[in-house]
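PROTEIN SPECIFICATION:
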Amino acid sequence: MSAPSIITIDGPAGAGKSTLGELLARRLGYLFFDTGVMYRALAWAVLRLSINPEDDEAVAALVRRLDIHVQPPGDATDGRPYTVLVNGVDVTWELRHPDVERIVSITARHPAVRADLRDRQRAIGRRGRVVMVGRDIGSIVMPDAPLKIYLDASVDERARRRTNEIRQRGGSADLQHIRNEIIRRDSLDRHVSAPATDACIIVSDGLSPEQVVDLVVSRIDCKPDDSQDTRAYDRAETSDPAGTR
């Protein structure tokens, strides 16, 4: 299979972008780059230094002095898809803390922050053989990427997935609270959440991660007018429709 050198995956919070990106990169032998961890790393540093996330000058000054490295997991045995270092400190799992989740959209919306981190993301993307996951990768960061995916899912589906993810890691999660947080995140992220005009749109409700990967692979030569809602994809043939995700 001949795959494009850069594949972008965008979509709202909890749509399954990271899962899709990791599985697709593994199948293609590509680097998996979840660009959102850069914004989470900044949010983690904001919390650690007790900076007001609304203070655009303070947050912009902070991001310029942060050394953020996203690298393969190496010998880690805790199931991580990558390792994130902030000024040499491994913060991989801390980036999923609810406090980070709560402010990440606030810290990310400062123009100077987005400009800085987008430049870093482009530098990685231009190396090629990469699956890049985020909110605005296909539309702004890598607009010339040959294959752009926009992965969507309903609020209820995303809330269910995020609740199950937290509980599977041994955490406590309230479905309604998480649903409300997703709605809040959607509102905050509206300025960067629109799909690229030439993106292939996949709505993943009722689909397993493997089915979504198959859809993306089948659309390697996707054209703009091929974009479509894929909720009915093979549903009749699915023996366990996303029940184990």
Notes: The first strand starts at residue 6 and ends at 10. Residues 36-128 form a domain with the Rossmann fold fold (CATH 3.40.50.300).
